[in-house]
Amino acid sequence: MKIQAPRGTKDWYGDDILLRRYIENIGRELCGLYNVKELDTPIFEYTELFERGVGDTTDIVQKEMYTFLDKGNRSITLKPEGTATAVRAFVQNSMYANVQPTKLFYITPCFRYEKPQSGRLRQHHQFGVEYFGTPEATADVEVIGLLIKLFERLKLKDISLHINSLGCRNCRKDFNKKFIDYLESNKENLCETCKERMNKNPMRTIDCKNEKCKEIVKDAPRTLDYLDDECNAHFEKLKGLLENLGIEYIIDKDIVRGQDYYTKTVFEFIDREGVTVCGGGRYDNLIEEIGGKSIPAVGFGFGIERLINAITEEGELPKIETGVDFFIGYIGDTACVQAQKIANLLRDNNLKVEVEHLNRSVKSQMKYADKINARYVTIIGDDEMKNGVCKVKNMESGEEKEIGIDKILHYGV
Question: Do residue 57 and residue 79 come from a single domain?
């Protein structure tokens, strides 16, 4: 029996990995324009980080994490998301002692044990941006703007921005009481999962997919109606900045996100099928929650696989150059050595070169050169070696010229 990759994983090669790298490189380039620095963290952390950071009542922690005991009997978890790990790195490395804000981005594999489906794998790749050290709505708008520029460069058009505010600890107290009271009055009609969530994490009931629960929660109180003056002012400023920048948005009171750490601003970008492509928000208490100082922060994260799905569905796949500059073929052992020398010369000058390795006929070598999208082809034999010349063919125009072998570097480049 053949050994296969575990369910929910994917081998990346060919056009798929080219598209993934293309997205990653655009993200890196944009982050450079916003002066956001790269962060690279371990793929596993102590389990406590996610229990305290993401929230021990969330589906991620309760159902989806890959957790195990290492040889030292320590509980270790493969990273299920990037924010908690970025916060841990910010605190552990005393980045708060530097001039603020600290702006970081990361591209990292993440692991969640969930049902594999289109755009959702058990090992996926997350692109995330985190701004530490600023409570201002201007930071919220900047990370949203960075995302919009990313989508524009990827020609992802049919997507809408949804925003909400979850308030802070102060205004959440009154909301939680009203919300739980409402759920209690409808408890007998809730599913068993929502009954459990009522006292542990009542806002998770808003995400429930059970039709009865959705109908009940539809009329429940929402955080946006219980904001205190400070949180309301923050949300009004956010809306004003978005409007002044010409960024369209939809106020969506149902957005609560899947992690416990969010405060004030939360947002999602949703495609035409109603699928969330990216989400994020503010998490002003998380740094303190995992042992750091009280430092505000805001950020976002998205699964690259899910973004690829959205791009593919819109039919606007970018044209990614996959060819080579030169294919160097040869006939005979002596010409083989010369072909390798020419290839090395061209590569030393930053040209992409493929050399024949299967001793095929000239006709087969030309077919191969066409399949790999070579711009120029030269095939060297005994006559070419004797005369110190070679024929170079432009594969696009069909034009063929005979030049000195020592002149090939300057041909068509």
Answer: yes
